[in-house]
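Lecture 7 notes: from sequence to structure.
We start with the chain below.
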Amino acid sequence: MSNPLREGLEAGRVVPPCTVVIFGAGGDLTRRKLMPALYNLAVSRALPGGFAVVGISRGEKSDDAFREEMHEAVGTFSRKKPIDPGIWTDFAPGLFFQAGAFGEAETYAKLKERLDTIESSRGTKGNRLFYLAVPPSEVRGIVEGLRGAGLVEKHTSISELPFTRIIAEKPFGHDRASAAALNGLLGEVFGERQVFRIDHYLGKETVQNLLVFRFANSLFEPLWNREHVDHVQITVAEDIGVEGRGRFYEQTGALRDIVQNHALQLLCLTAMEPPISLHADAVRDEKVKVLRSLRPLGPRTIRSSVVRGQYTGGFVRGDEVRAYRQEPDVAGESSTETFVAMRVFVDSWRWGGVPFYVRAGKRLNRRATEVAIHFKRVPHAIFPVPDGGISPNVLTMRIQPDEQIALRFTTKEPGQNTVLRDVAMDFRYGSTFGSNTPEAYERLLLDAMRGDATLFTRADEAEQQWAFVEPILAAWQENPTPPPMYDAGSWGPEASHELLAADGRRWRKP
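Predicted structure tokens for the same chain:
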């Protein structure tokens, strides 16, 4: 009798032949991320011999025109430059284009015919991976179109061949109800093991290394609990604004755009218990337990533990930038938040009483994503120290940019007197492994082809993330006052600093 916890692990080592069908092939995601990632996989010899890509979007164009567009995109955005002519010569013939509107049955009838031809000529053996690089409003039409054309066969096992899988981009729904409805729709057409809800943060090397760092090193795991950790800080900071996505951001805001997915995923990986294996469901089971352990936020707690803000004009890296309300497609009196900070508690045996401080925002001082574990101070200082005592040890995992892990500790300066100084030991990915680290989409696309869902979000996980943030959204809707303003180029509104100051702490400067 097979062990379900081992299912797919051996098969996952091999990338089977397949066709990747990209809905929204004319968009920025395809140009900037997906096609460069696929090309980089080709450079690394990671793609299977039988491989093809079919791009679908509105507007007629030939396969050759599509290949030329993708050549330009790869040349601009790939981490591997310049384009290797020999590799491109092998890669380009596998790229095809199909024009069509996502809500029309004719699109899927033509796609079925095209796939039959491509699969025969390219040897992809009927394996298909559908990538929804489209807004959430387009998902229903695509899923129903695929079902109507007979392009999907529902599977319960990841090892069934030929496979049909689907990748859904974030945001996965707009609230818990819409996420549940989307899960219901996908569940009617696909088995859960065929659905890959992507959060590109989970493909970043340092995020993956959180698991390795915690569970492959005996030095830190015994300290990773309430007995030794004073608090945890999670920062997802961007120095850019909404970058022409004003209409999208007006409907979304920082809580939905960053906290509900990226930040909560980082919190889960930091706080989770050791999984029994690296099987996808074993890892995701532990993450869901963390989400269910988050202390619910009531109206009074939200007022005292959650801060929002919106950027005004200011200077970022020496350049003057405009306020959020001056961005295109943003209302002149908008109350949309571009910054969120909160105090969160994980009510579990490991983390009882340890606050997790989470902040995320746009137009901040610099681009930086990190998890910082602040350990408790020594119980008694036997050395002469300045006011404030000996600084606590801090372990920092930098996700982006300049991926690294650093440990701050106290040492003595050389000399006759005992003078203490904070120093850091750090490990930098670029210095150790070279600067050409694979990008997140490379790992995630390859895992989806393999059928490894470890770094993807499960249905109950997505809904549980919404369950935590939904009371905050409801409280803001009931009290739609404008959020406090903060200068572009700063570290957010003053209330964010007061949130930690009230607990006798302060934000770490990334």
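Points to note: The first strand starts at residue 18 and ends at 23. The radius of gyration is 24 Å.
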